[in-house]
Amino acid sequence: MVDAGEVGVVSHGISKIVRALDNPSSTVRAAACDALAALGREGGGELLRRLRFIELADSMAGNEESRPLLEALTSLVHADAERSVRLAAARALQSIAEADGESARILRDRYSYRLVQVMCWSSTRRDSALADALAVVLGSQEEAEAADEAREDSEESEGDDPAEDCVICQRSLARHGEKRTLPCRHVFHRHCVNQWFAWSKRCWGIETCPLCRRQGHTSGKVTK
């Protein structure tokens, strides 16, 4: 039987790991994500889902408002400047989602847009490790196959001057695969918007434009 003192030691240790997600050192941030991934693999998914995170800057300013750990990890995947941290955070989310069904549901319901965006972005950059981890988080073989398709469609030409970007992957529409123009006249990479449609249909039962949320996109012109 675990006594209260042991529980306190464990809780303090996990809190230190969570606080390290905001450390200025990318090595420390990545190591903290790796530790959380290990906790998830050891069956701690539900515990990690319930944890909350206070950013260091907010704490120093006296603002104690916290946010869920899942949101903090999603933000690292989406916005951290270091690829090693983004990958470690994605693998932490993967282990938590695999260990705890409710965590998986929350990630898909609340944070799918940012995760799909990063998966498309990493796929077109041939970052298979990051794309594959997020495909597992998002929860189906369809996403993994779509990530493979995105890598196959990606082009490596460097000479074009892009006029505009795909809002999903943030890469030039003039390069990196075929374009798809929706009936609402918004344009995306074909593989990016197909991934979005698969997600939209599974989560909400409808296919919607990522920009205007117009429904009924069963058609669309595909161009090079």
TrEMBL record:
Residues 143-163 are annotated as: Disordered. It holds the Pfam family zf-RING_2. It comes from the Eukaryota. HEAT repeats lie at residues 69-104. The keyword Ligase does not apply. InterPro entries: ARM-like, ARM-type_fold, HEAT_type_2, Znf_RING, Znf_RING/FYVE/PHD. One of its GO terms (biological process) is protein ubiquitination. Keywords: Metal-binding, Zinc, Zinc-finger. Residues 166-213 form the RING-type domain. GO terms for molecular function: ubiquitin protein ligase activity; zinc ion binding. PANTHER family: FINGER DOMAIN PROTEIN, PUTATIVE (AFU_ORTHOLOGUE AFUA_3G12190)-RELATED, RING ZINC FINGER PROTEIN-RELATED. This is RING-type domain-containing protein. It comes from Alexandrium catenella.
